[in-house]
Amino acid sequence: MDNGLVGVKITPVKVRKISHRVRRDLWVGLVLLAPGIGLAVGFKFVPLVRGFWLSLFETRGFEEPKFAGLANYERMFSDSTVIKAFTNTLVVVSTLPIWVFLPLVLALLLFLRVPGWKFFRASFFLPYMIAPIVVGIMFRQILAPDGPLNQALRSIGLGGLAIEWLNGPNSSLLSLVAVALWSFFGLGVLNYLSALATIPQEIIEASRLDGAGFWRMLFQIVLPMIKPMVGYWTVLCASGVLIWMFPLIYAMTKGGPGLSTMLPEFLIFLTTFQFLDRGYGSAIGIALFLFVAIISAFTVRYMYNEGVKVKKA
Amino acid sequence: MTRIDSDVPLGPVGERWLKTRPAFDRGGLRIAAARALVVVVLSMFAVAALYPLIFTIFSSFKSSGEFAQNPMGLPASLSLTNYLEIFERMQVGRLLFNSMISTLGAMILTTVSALFVAYVVTKMNFPGRNLIFLFVISMLVIPSQAIIFPLHQTILDIGLGGSYPGLILSLAAFGLPLGTYILAAYFRSVPIELLEAARMDGAGHLRILFSVLLPVSIPALAALSILNFVWMWNDLLLPLVIMGGTEKTTLMVGVALLSGQYDISIPLISSGLIIALLPVVIIYLLLQRQIMSGAIAGSVK
Hints:
The complex is a heterodimer.
Chain A (H helix, E strand, L loop, with lengths): L14 H40 L2 E2 L7 E2 L3 H8 L1 H14 L2 H16 L5 H13 L2 H11 L5 H8 L15 H26 L4 H9 L4 H12 L1 H17 L2 H7 L11 H11 L3 H31 L5
Antiparallel strand pairs in A: 1-2
Helix pairs in contact in A: 1-14, 4-5, 4-8, 4-11, 5-8, 6-12, 8-11, 11-14, 13-14
Chain B lengths: L10 H9 L3 H4 L5 H29 L3 H6 L11 H9 L2 H32 L5 H10 L5 H14 L6 H25 L3 H9 L4 H12 L1 H17 L2 H6 L8 H9 L6 H21 L1 H8 L6
Helix pairs in contact in B: 1-16, 3-15, 5-15, 6-7, 6-9, 6-12, 7-9, 9-12, 10-11, 14-15
């Protein structure tokens, strides 16, 4: 018994009319679903399946692909380039606490209305709006050996710190992470601010009357109350560091020097489009997909629960 | 800098702040010195956030010679030479048009598709609707980087390689999971009585969707549009692979390819960067109130 609208009760007298309507509603539903399902299947699901299929083939340039089973995956485990790309990823992931806590501290300060908080809020969010490729090119100039950063360091007598930010084997990966953090921390601040706004004022008030300092307020009162947002942002950053870096690497280092800034997403691009080793590139792609999927499954679970739950208006 | 919303209404988050009393004066950070220190530290962050942009703006007005002598200071004059040259060299007009076509096309397509899916899974008694919803939002876990080659292949196979529809469909597909989620979550909060009344008046699904649901969903649609505009305009990988260096490529690809040319000077590329980031920054300044009110906070991407 269905009149097509959720939650609307209908009387038995109308049953015959309704079964006709049910069938019509089914058609309407199918037609409405078609574009969305078409996009999802055609441009995400099918390419994923094709990517997996292709990863089972050995390909070389424009030669005919040969079925090779799991050979590409076996090759990955002994390929020092791939291993380096994934160990670099681990280094990047190890910076996650900064990604999580720096925006939180900044957001709480803004929330407590530091003088000039509106200006700070606007400036912190601006970098997020700038395209990562533009950010990358900007920083390639700023971090150049004779760029403004090193000149500034030298002029204040810190010439020893004026290193080759993007060309040093150790500094380049951390420079890359720092630029990525520059590009995304504003989104974290904004997310945290929207969560902080849900904390009842009495609670902040009470903690102040108790004489709680900033850090105690942060860890004992604020953090437990905005735990869902902290979790959400952590998951987002964890999957983000795997997939946000492409334009920055493209603009700043191309994976170098050596392999010091090579990350899987850039390696896939190189392997596929420059070395034309498509089967192998697809295998690395599937590996990256698995890592991203495991992490962002948490996001999807959250979205599903939120989207299925009936909210009070 | 620019207009920092001193006299505009602030939206939900801002309003709530206004109602709070200045905690900062009497809270833990009571001591004036500590307070000054905090402002200094935040100012350093603000400088770090703004300086790269300021440096790029300054550079974009300098000649190569001037930049070599004075890379950091103010430009001697507001000469538009670099901008004129980059317009020519990068075909800015053409690329700007391409970026607009693909961004707007993808925004419309993804929003309409998401709107339909969200309606079916929240407001119709469609069989398996929760599973359909789960399927669509679970596409979020497939990053473009991981499937870029087979995606490109698929686009070539259906004859859309290097075309606007090819790029528009791809961008729309990647925007769909989040769009569906945002709209579905919003539709859930729309009371059923509202739709029931329209139903009693004999309205069909499409009329309910467009003349009842849509008008009350403007905030969600606005947030979604801002979000999509920013990432679709800024995206590099999809247009780079689908369009490459063709006539139909986007501004971001244009900038990326230009920056790889050996004879490009820093002042010249800087003017290209400013042109590329300007549309989004203008949107940011115009819609700052909506953006800051938490409209796009809590969303992915």
